[in-house]
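can u pls check wat happens w/ C2R
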Amino acid sequence: MTDIVVGIVMGSDSDLPVMQGAATVLETLQVNFELTIVSAHRTPKRLFDYAQTAEARGLSVIIAGAGGAAHLPGMVASLTCLPVIGVPIKTSTLNGQDSLLSIVQMPAGVPVATVAINNAQNAGILAAQIVAIKFPAIRAQICRYKSELEQMVLAKAEKLEQLGYSQYLADYQLP
Ligand SMILES: Nc1c(C(=O)O)ncn1[C@@H]1O[C@H](COP(=O)(O)O)[C@@H](O)[C@H]1O
């Protein structure tokens, strides 16, 4: 394990069921991270403090998840030179379209790398790929992860071809 290199922040603990996807994949890839709650709207002073001290605390990349009027990722990006990955959280009223557009439509000069709605797992993988530039051990974990993913899909394709469509469908377990 490395020192803590990835920061995960979320606007509310209600985002945790989604944001744990980033934490889980970072654990799998053996990347150390910190995880906390920061809100641009509700805790603006904490937001400034978190973003402005992030680099000095050793972070290389920040994942920020928020829903609705999701200003958190953009505000973090405005306050640090570190790359920021935004996770739009699915909302009950607008299905996360509001979160997605709030995060992705940043003005030129202040980018937030935005993943799909609720796809915190991809944010974790992307963060690991960024820190892997500095840490060859993490790069090796990512290559292993991708290879396992490939093997898993190839095994399914083989099973589908062996069993045939109807039998495969009958055995299929919904995720
Ligand atoms: N979008 C933001 C910000 C922010 O951008 O600063 N702070 C909280 N939130 C979001 O509000 C939603 C509802 O939060 P509650 O469930 O606490 O009411 C969450 O998805 C959170 O990310």
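The pocket of C2R is lined by residues 10-12, 14-15, 39-42, 66-72, 89 (CB under 6 Å).
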